[in-house]
Design a protein that fits this description.
There is one protein chain. This protein is mainly β. The protein is built from no helices and eleven strands. The chain starts with a strand and ends with a strand. The mean pLDDT is about 95.
């Protein structure tokens, strides 16, 4: 079993930045592909970014490329998402996800979910 706890959400103005963290425990964190998903009010949960178990490969949704950066520190069992140039449409609950699959870009291959952290982008 894997437990994932997100932190770092909050209210930020358009154009601002936030860094989300996800602390993992349980099964060996370093053996899992990690990802971020988000769900805006009234919308389906969508893929944001993913990172391979050693951090050598990263994947991003097109709308996040160049603005968001996913990273991980396996020595700390922690996943990060640096979000820059935030827009009101980035407002959502952001979820940390883990999978034993090599590539994770869809919700149906996620094995473990965190409870989410709310990011609100508003002036």
């Amino acid at each position: 079993q894997v437990q994932l706890v997100e932190s770092g959400g909050g209210l930020v103005q358009p154009g601002g930045s936030l860094r989300l963290s996800c602390a993992g425990s349980g099964r060996t964190f370093g053996s899992l592909t990690m990802a971020w998903f988000r769900q805006a009010p009234g919308k389906e949960r969508e893929f944001v970014a993913a990172i391979s178990w050693l951090g050598g490969s990263t994947y991003y949704a097109d709308s996040m490329k160049g603005r968001f950066t996913i990273s991980r520190d396996n020595s700390k069992n922690t996943l990060y998402l640096q979000m820059n140039s935030l827009k009101p449409e980035d407002t959502a609950v952001y979820y940390c996800a883990a999978s034993g699959r090599r590539v994770v870009t869809a919700i149906n291959v996620v094995d473990y979910w965190g409870k989410g952290t709310l990011v609100t982008v508003s002036s």
